[in-house]
């Protein structure tokens, strides 16, 4: 990819901003910062394209943020599968709900496309490099970069940590360690080529059972993405991710996909975690790095994209004149933009663990699908029309100062 740097080249420059992690949050942040004519380095530990544990479903909220960032053509080029429905199954019953407006796309293709969008806006990309945030001296933060056994320090006036669930980039900083919730599940994922025709394109098939839930969705290359949140104990008991998913699918009466045992499975650390701080001196956290709850209807990427795009005016303001209040303002903005919605997801995740509730709710939804509409509408609500965005807009307006370039 053009715009890909070497470690040595990256270390020779001073950066306005370093963004760590090229998931949706990091790519959108890097693109937005570069569009303001700031020098920005996007650092990613993996070689791209890389797979990621995820269902790959972008809801309306995500698409709206991508459109606003001008990044939607990059996704359209991949031929994403339009989503129309959500088939929820538990205890042998299922309900099909209308879920228009979203698309499904593999994370390998999508994240590579968003990294390209950042590079096309002027960001420099440094893949296969692990970053660790260091201390602040004068008006810069240091970042230690490591790649293939070599390490270099770079400095940036602002750092955006968009490292997902992994807290490694912040492990050297006091107060930034995230805490996982005791009964949190773990995520597993595989993409498979051999599966029953039952799993048609355009529908998110969601199987809910006591050991967790499995989402199955067709992606742009026709394959079936299987992504699940499962109890670690249930997975150990079953003998691995494929067997755990099979148990859940059989419990609800969904057909088992033959390709599952041979597939290459990936896993995550515990999913639900709280982060005590979401900002520090010359440092902002965005996306899953800022705290995470179990995903259910495609909110994770919506929050990551919303965080990545709305952190940009905060970065700009910090570049013009850093003051400690900015960290507090980002924390407040994040709470308004995302945390209040995570509360609803938390309730959904807890509700899904009560089998009596799920077994009552699914037949009720099958008869009266409109019952789900308020929840889906609320979760899908356009982030740009939420109160959080107006706070960012206010900040953006008040910080409209000419960049000193
Ligand atoms: C089972 C499951 C299913 C899901 N399904 C959906 C879904 O269908 N729809 C949806 O919207 N959300 C879904 N999610 C949630 C979604 O995957 C995340 O919320 C989203 O990926 C968060 O984006 P991010 O940019 O914050 O982090 P990530 O996408 O995790 O990206 C972080 C990046 O940072 C890199 N990195 C980490 N540490 C370092 C370091 N020290 N140095 C350099 N790079 C580093 C990583 O390699 C990675 O590329 C799902 C999650 C799970 C677990």
Residue runs with pLDDT of under 50 for 5 or more positions: 384-405
CATH topology grouping of the domain at 7-79 and 105-182 and 271-352 and 377-398: FAD/NAD(P)-binding domain
Query: Helix content range of the residues, please?
Result: 25-40%
Beta-strand share of residues: 25-35%
Molecular shape: globular
Structural class: alpha+beta
- CATH-defined superfamily of the domain at 7-79 and 105-182 and 271-352 and 377-398: FAD/NAD(P)-binding domain
Distance between the termini: 26 Å
Q: What is the CA-atom radius of gyration, in angstroms?
A: 21 Å
| Biggest sheet statistics | 8 strands, mixed
User: Class of the domain at 7-79 and 105-182 and 271-352 and 377-398, according to the CATH hierarchy?
Assistant: Alpha Beta
Please give a structural write-up:
This protein has a domain at 7-79 and 105-182 and 271-352 and 377-398: FAD/NAD(P)-binding domain. It has 13 helices and 20 strands. 36% of the residues lie in helices and 26% in strands. With 405 residues, the chain is of the alpha+beta class. It starts with 6 loop residues before the first helix and ends in a 7-residue tail after the last helix. The model is unreliable at 384-405 (pLDDT under 50). Helix 2 (24-35) links the parallel strand 1 (14-20) and strand 2 (40-43). The strands form four sheets. Strands 1, 2, 8, 9, 10, 11, 19 and 20 form an eight-stranded mixed sheet that branches. The chain binds flavin-adenine dinucleotide (FAD). Flavin-adenine dinucleotide binds next to helix 2, strand 9, strand 13, strand 16 and helix 8.
């Amino acid at each position: 990819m053009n715009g890909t740097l070497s470690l040595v080249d990256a270390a020779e420059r001073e950066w306005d901003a370093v963004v760590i992690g090229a998931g949706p949050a990091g790519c959108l942040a890097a693109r937005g910062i570069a569009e303001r004519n700031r020098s920005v380095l996007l650092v990613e530990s993996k070689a791209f394209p890389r797979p990621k544990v995820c269902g790959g479903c972008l809801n309306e909220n995500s698409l709206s943020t991508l459109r606003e960032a001008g990044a939607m053509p990059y996704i359209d080029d991949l031929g994403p599968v339009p989503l129309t429905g959500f088939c929820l199954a538990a205890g042998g019953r299922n309900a099909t709900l209308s879920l228009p407006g979203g698309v499904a796309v593999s994370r390998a293709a999508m994240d590579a496309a968003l990294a390209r969008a950042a590079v096309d806006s002027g960001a420099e990309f440094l893949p296969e490099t692990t970053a660790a945030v260091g201390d602040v001296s004068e008006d810069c933060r240091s970042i230690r970069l490591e790649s293939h056994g070599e390490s270099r320090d770079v400095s940036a006036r602002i750092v955006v940590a968009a490292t997902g669930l992994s807290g490694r980039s912040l492990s050297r900083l006091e107060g930034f360690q995230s805490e996982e919730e005791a009964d949190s599940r773990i995520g597993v994922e595989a993409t498979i080529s051999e599966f029953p025709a039952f799993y048609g394109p355009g529908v998110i098939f969601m199987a809910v059972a006591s050991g967790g839930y499995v989402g199955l969705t067709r992606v742009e290359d026709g394959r079936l993405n299987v992504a699940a949140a499962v109890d670690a104990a249930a997975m150990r008991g079953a003998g691995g991710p494929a067997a755990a998913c099979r148990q859940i699918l059989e419990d609800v009466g969904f057909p088992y996909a033959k390709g599952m045992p041979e597939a290459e499975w990936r896993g995550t650390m515990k999913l639900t975690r709280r982060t005590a701080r979401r900002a520090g001196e010359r440092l902002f956290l965005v996306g899953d790095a800022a705290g995470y709850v179990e995903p259910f209807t495609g909110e994770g990427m919506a929050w990551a994209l919303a965080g990545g795009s709305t952190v940009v005016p905060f970065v700009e303001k910090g570049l013009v004149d850093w003051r400690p209040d900015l960290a507090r303002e980002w924390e407040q903005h994040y709470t308004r933009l995302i945390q209040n919605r995570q509360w609803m997801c938390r309730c959904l995740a807890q509700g899904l663990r009560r089998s009596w509730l799920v077994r009552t709710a699914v037949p009720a939804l099958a008869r009266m699908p409109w019952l789900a509409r308020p929840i889906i509408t609320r979760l899908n609500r356009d982030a740009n029309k939420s109160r959080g965005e107006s706070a960012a807009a206010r900040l953006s307006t008040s910080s409209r100062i000419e960049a000193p370039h």
